[in-house]
Amino acid sequence: MTEPDIPSAYVRDRRTPPPSREELRARIPGWGVDLDPADRPSSPKLQYSADTGAHWDFPDRQPGSAGRERSVEHAFVTPVFGTAQPLHGPSGAIRRLAYERFSEARLAHWLLLVAGDRVDAWGSHLRSFGSTRPDVPATGVHTEVSHGGLRSRAGRSDRRHHLVDPLLVAGPWVAGAGVGAVVVRRLARALRR
Amino acid sequence: MRAMTYRGPYKLRVEEKDRPRIEHPNDAIVRVTLAAICGSDLHLYHGLMPDTRIGHTFGHEFIGVVDEVGPSVQHLQVGDRVMVPFNVFCGSCWFCARGLYSNCHNVNPNATAVGGIYGYSHTTGGYDGGQAEYVRVPFADVGPVLIPEWMHDEDAVLLTDAAATGYFGAQLGEIVEGDTVVVLGAGPVGLIAAQSSWLMGAGRVIVVDHLTERLAKAREMAHAETLDYDELDDVVVELKQQTDFLGADVVIDAVGAEADGNALQQFTGPKLKLQGGSATALNWAIDAARKGGTIAVVGAYGPIPNAVKFGDAMNKGLTLRMNQTPVKRQWPRMFEHVRNGHLTPRQMVTHRFPLEDIAEAYHVFSAKLDGCIKPLVVPNAN
């Protein structure tokens, strides 16, 4: 390698200067209009807003905060909070333990919340089997036909791991059905005795 | 009302739910006219986000019409057409007072590390989202903005998150004139990040993905060079060669937790949920940035720890900048860019689904079928 061929990283200056302003402006709509950091809304990071729209120093407190789960890193239940799906049942107990016992800094906090999610999902699936609208392992999969599943994945590297999705999604259902069948059979045997 | 409802990982449907009600004096109820599915909704859909409860309604990108207001609301009236930032924020806490609307401390009792987000699990406050006919909008005097007459609805809905996040990502990169900017991910956030990098003076913009239709969109819409990592033995080596062995001045991670490109990360993250998603994009960013360069992270990751090459980030003297986007802060300047045609969010929309077909929409978007880049959701489409 002769000296002029040595890449920029090994010498003081870049070998190839960037295109000129004129060239970039001709090619790119709006090139450089936010070149000045003063024109960038998030520069600097901390900025006092003249008017956020808030007409309070501290917001009114939303009713119903008693018993609402909260991170132990908060001083109190925040003045406004979501009420979408309140804690309930065994999954609620697991989640409440995560919130009351462990801070966000502890892995146990998050693993308990994940465990609560799975208990919530399986409890919900079981209840759905007693309804007119039982859950299925995955929804929307018929779009594999209507929206060209094979065609869309042609040549894509992610098709390799897409192949394991049916196993990961349906596997627990198959295992659950197997366990259910064994339990039913044993119960039937016990009742016959 | 009809609403998208989560039934567990990979399972959702439309159900009849109670219409939301005013729960705080500064609440509004908004009738949703247009919503979108965000790439980060897929983290919920795949079961990656802790405390995603059965029955939750997703959706943090939506616009609509004010249907009801609480007694203390002063700035909105019934009938106003509004766009709602994905952040739920109070406008008055220590963080909001300094412009960090995405880090509001008064709206999310479930966590201090993240602010409030519509339809994004109880880890972000437990608010049902906008993939529904109606949605509760707290702090109606602070978040929502009237949609300008001239603005297209599809631009407006994309400005509530994806487009604002792409623009914010480029700002986090602290781009100076002539910089080489690498954008990882040619999804909606990455496409706008690439467009925005030019506005901030980039001399070269390279977008990396493996989906051909997205890379084509990056070339056409964002005037970017593109790299398909499926065609390369090692994308980092390619980037080093293309930057004269310096590496990129700025790398923007516009992928987050669902990143492909590394089988171990993909299986331990999105598949087995052993980490808060795949850290492939973040690790590529660390490797591909030049020493002393900057990494901007706007891809979303879960709160469970990730396998990130932090030692290399330290050894290279990188600056890592990141946050959830404080959306409303971006809007006045972004409105100018959209009006002038410098940013073109609605060019990214590929699919429009009626709310009743939400399960189909999620599967198409998740599996990237039919060239899907950005799907919109239309309540009351029939």
Give a brief description:
Chain A has 193 residues and is mainly α. Chain A is 43% helix and 0% strand.
The CA-CA distance between the termini of chain B, in Å, is 15 Å
Total strands of chain A: the figure is 0
Our count of helices of chain A gives 7
Helicity of chain B, as a percent range: 25-40%
Coarse shape of chain A: extended
3D shape of chain B: globular
- The structure class of chain B reads alpha/beta
Q: What is the percentage of strand-forming residues of chain B?
A: 15-25%
Number of strands of chain B: 17
Structure description:
The complex is a heterodimer of chains A (193) and B (382). Chain A has a domain at 87-133. Chain A has helices spanning 21-27, 89-101, 107-128, 143-146, 149-153, 159-162, 165-192. Chain A is built from 7 helices and no strands. Chain A has 193 residues and is mostly helical. Chain A starts with 20 loop residues before the first helix and ends with a helix. In chain A, 43% of the residues lie in helices and 0% in strands. Chain B is α/β, with parallel strands linked by helices. Chain B has 2 domains: 2-161 and 326-378, Alpha-Beta Complex (Quinone Oxidoreductase, Chain A, domain 1), CATH 3.90.180; 165-322, NAD(P)-binding Rossmann-like Domain (Rossmann fold, 3-Layer(aba) Sandwich), CATH 3.40.50.720. In chain B, 27% of the residues lie in helices and 24% in strands. Chain B has 12 helices and 17 strands. Chain B has helices spanning 41-45, 94-97, 153-159, 162-172, 188-199, 212-222, 235-242, 263-271, 280-288, 310-315, 327-339, 358-367; strands at residues 2-8, 11-16, 28-36, 61-69, 81-84, 87-88, 116-117, 134-137, 145-146, 180-184, 204-209, 225-228, 248-253, 289-297, 319-322, 349-354, 374-378. In chain B, strands 3, 4, 5, 8, 9, 16 and 17 form a 7-stranded mixed beta sheet that branches. A 6-stranded parallel beta sheet of chain B has the order 12-11-10-13-14-15, sandwiched between helices. In chain B, a hairpin with a 2-residue loop joins β1 (2-8) and β2 (11-16). Chain B starts with a strand and ends with a strand. At the A-B interface, α1, α2, α3, α4 and α5 of A face β2, α4, α5, α8 and α11 of B.
